[in-house]
Amino acid sequence: MKVVVLAATGQAGKTVISELLSRGHEVVAVARSPEKLPSSIPSVRDDLSNADRLADIIKDADVVISAYGPSKDDPRYFFDVNYTDQLLDVTERVVEAVHKAKVSRLIVVGGAGSLWLSPGVTVLNSGHWPEQFVPIATSHVKTFEMLKKSDINWVYFSPPMMIAPGVRTAKFRLGGDHIIVDANGKNWISFEDYAVALVDEIEKPAHERGRFTIGY
Hints:
two-stranded antiparallel sheet, single chain, 22% strand, 8-stranded mixed beta sheet
């Protein structure tokens, strides 16, 4: 399949690209600074600021993956939801581009804040979510709600509360709207296994206009 990965130089984007290439998929990486990627990966320089240009970039894709997130290098990331709401703005443009280009599927690298921690209590509202990450979690919740109202075929893939570079085991569990905890009560995954599950979803679609999540 031809897969276009937006915001390809972030941790999620790079890891997903590696998994896609290992399985023989055709990848086009879209990034503000594509020089950060290996020269062997076909890439396009774009800042996701124009839906028409983006539609032209993705027009032949089978799947678009949006791994966009506001930069953590800006201190506003940790206290200003007006800054992190760039996520909502960019994803709205991505949805518009997918619609215009008639791409059959969009997969969004989502957030954990809207997952249910316990009946009636989301991760974001549980008191267990770090205060400094409330703005980005709030913006992810808004983005998820926007996708629900869109007219494209989307999938929102929520990571656990903890995700970090690690080991590719290809052994994990998938769920819907509730967090998945391991034997020690930990809700976590490696970026490598997150990428495995995302590419599995591309190859064997199991979700449409909905969300799923992952954990060990």
